Amino acid sequence: MKDSVDATAVERALEADEFSNRKLIRPLLNHNNTNHRAEAPMERRERSNGPAPRKNVPLEQTNAENFYYQKQMQGRTPMVLVLQDGEQMHGVIEWYDKHCIKLIRNGQPNVMVYKPCIKYMYKESENGRK
To answer: What is the mean pLDDT of the segment spanning 104-123?
Structure first.
């Protein structure tokens, strides 16, 4: 009877060693996840008394404005520029830079318009109402 007790104790010790070497698997209970894929759990971050980490600065330019100007220049689209004071200027955009737009006008001198003076612009074929 002594042999059976010792064998049982050894088996329990082996099982305990095997159990301690196993990884604990926890299911993710993230109900907001719509694609139902397994993701690694977020690590807990320690708080520090130092300054907060800096956020990334957004891009200064998305190039959407440049794309629009290029498209109108290549198509030689007649445009209407409405200035801050309500004056309208009709013409075709010849070129632009960071601060100005050069407008070619029929029967009138060409003008360079400072961008901050422009309230909005639209294609001459549109009605221009907002």
So the answer is: 94
